[in-house]
Amino acid sequence: MSAPRSLFAPASVLSRAEAQEIAQRVLRNSPAEETRVSINSGARADTRFALNQVTTSGENQDTQITITAYVGNRSASVNTNRLDEASLAAAAKQAHEIAKLVPPNPERMPELGAQTYPAFRERALDIPTPAERAAAAKIVTELARANDLVATGFIECRAGATALANSKGLFAYDASASVSMTATVRSPDGTGSGWACTDGNSFGELDPKQLAATAVQKAKDSRNPVAIEPGRYTAILEPTAVGNLVQLIPGAMQARAADEGRSFFSKPGGGNKIGLKVVDERVTLLTDPADSPSLSGGYDNDGVPLEKVVWIENGLVKNLNYDRFWAQKQNVPATRAGGGGFGGTRSLRMLGGSSSIADMIKSTERGVLVTRFWYIRGVDPRTILYTGLTRDGTFLVENGKVTRPIKNFRYNESPIFFLNNLEAVGGTMRINSSESASTGGAVFMPPIKVRDFNFTSLSDAV
Predict the structure, then answer these.
(1) Confidence category of residue 233, pLDDT binned at 50, 70, 90
(2) Domain end among 163, 197, 214
(3) Same domain, yes or no: 221 and 144
(4) Among residues 197, 214, 231, which one ends one of the domains?
(5) Could you give the CA distance from residue 160 to residue 397 in angstroms, rounded to a whole number?
(6) d(CA 114, CA 112)
(7) For 10, 47, 252, 316, which has the most beta carbons within 10 A of its beta carbon?
């Protein structure tokens, strides 16, 4: 059994050499015809604060090994975090025995052989100390207290390494890190709420002073909101609000669903919408390993090296996501943009323009300024239609000025719809678009101004 970790030892993840040694031990002990070994080694540190004081602080680390055994087209996987040879051998044997019993998978693709990956460069693990995290939280809580407000927030720092190996000679290794700090600041009477986030690849990239100033100002400005009638409004969406919904588009760009007529990207009469215009020509969406907090570019779940993929270019569908099976069936190249790597989602970037939020406000006769969205849930996958709520700072714009805070709205809207109604696009910045504010892949979004955003009802939630 692996030796227990000292509570006083700094968090760490597996090096390339350590991951490769573990994978080799699994492979030489596996009785299966073919074996795949997936390794996920992660370290995490977090600090929470509420009521203007730190409430919890912690660190953890773990290494999970997934052993997949193949018997013809049958396969089974077993997970373990026990790294001694006997435990790994037992898990490999168990996976093999289970694989004999499961139904065959007619779409199973053969394991890949060795691949060529960019050169890997080791770097020091960036997990800040509890004192460093507390100091960042203090910047927010002190400014909130000085303004008779109450701050709550979360700092999360993650570092990790993944490896993938198989009995055909493939070995891939990647490491990454991401850090996020969010804060919600509210007025004591509960009528005002402001939110802000700072995100990066390392703790030193965070800007807690700017976060504190933004959240505090929004909390002050949003007190005592008034109700206005729901309806279709010109909407100015801050980058986080844009990311909350635009990030839902790539997940819908699955080639198989499109080719089978089950997707927004299905072409009427058959086929898919590659080459067709679906949004305003100012919209370009892409994923690029260079944007993600990764050292070597990453790889997908099969070990295929990731590449930059432009999904929508100047409003036209440029690519759909073809997995290896569907690509073979359709006789097209597979898309090198899958998962893989620590944190799951790799990255997403929407190219920006030159308009500022101030410019968008000045040019608006009557509209709604939105900080972010919340409680986002799917309504219709055929149109990528979602519903949700505005949150933590929603304001009325009249005659080129922000005039008053307003009560939150529920909306029913598709990012495809509002990206066809673009009026202005601002500069791109890194954001955290997760509802849970957890760290993840790097997401870069601009603020945008759109026509006829569909706010369907009022919400009394702050």
Answers:
(1) very high
(2) 214
(3) no
(4) 214
(5) 44
(6) 7
(7) 47
Q: Which helix (H) or strand (E) holds 133?
A: helix 130-146
> Cβ of 289: how many Cβ atoms within 10 Å?
23
Contacting residues for 74 by C-beta, under 8 A, at least 6 apart: 99, 100, 101, 102, 103, 104, 105
What secondary structure letter does DSSP report for 433?
Answer: -
Residue 330 belongs to some domain of the structure = no
Q: Is residue 21 part of a domain?
A: yes
Q: Same domain for 130 and 172?
A: yes
Average pLDDT, the chain: 92
Decide: helix, strand or coil at residue 258: helix
Same domain for 129 and 25, yes or no, is yes
| Helix (H), strand (E) at residue 50 | strand 34-50
Separation between Cα atoms, residue 250 and residue 318, nearest integer Å: 12
242 and 183 in a common domain:
no
Confidence of residue 290 (pLDDT cuts 50, 70, 90): confident
* Spatial distance between the Cα atoms of 18 and 5, rounded to a whole number of angstroms: 16
Cα-trace Rg, the chain: 24
Q: How many domains does the structure of the chain reveal?
A: 2
Per-residue pLDDT for 354 more than 50?
yes
CB-based contact 192:224 (threshold 8 Å): yes
Q: Across the strands, what pairs with 79?
A: 66
Instruction: Please report, rounded to a whole number, the percentage of residues in the chain having pLDDT higher than 70.
Output: 93
30-44 burial, b at 16+ Cβ within 10 Å, e below that, comes to bebebbbbbbbbbbb
| Two structure tokens written together for 98 | 């289970």
Question: 109 with 222, same domain?
Answer: no
Q: Which two tokens stand for residue 11?
A: 């968090």
Residue 438 lies in a domain: yes
> In angstroms, rounded to a whole number, what is the distance separating the alpha carbons of residues 84 and 414?
50
| Per-residue pLDDT reduced to its tens digit, 313-350 | 999 999 999 999 999 999 999 998 864 332 334 689 99
- Per the listing, tokens 């402001």 go with 194
CB contact at 8 A, 27 and 83: no
Same domain, 92 and 192: yes
Q: What is the mean pLDDT of residues 289-301?
A: 80
Q: What percent of the chain has pLDDT over 90?
A: 84
**What CATH number has the domain bearing residue 100?**
3.30.2290.10
337 lies in some domain: no
| Range list of H helices, 147-251 | 208-221, 239-246, 248-251
Kindly state whether residues 35 and 165 are assigned to the same domain: yes
SS3 345: coil
Q: Is the pLDDT of residue 433 over 70?
A: yes
Question: For residue 364, what are the domain limits?
Answer: 217-246+351-459
**pLDDT in the model for residue 99:** 98
Residue 291, CB half-sphere, CA atoms under 13 Å: how many?
26
Cβ 136 vs Cβ 206: under 8 Å: yes
Residues 237 and 92 reside in one and the same domain: no
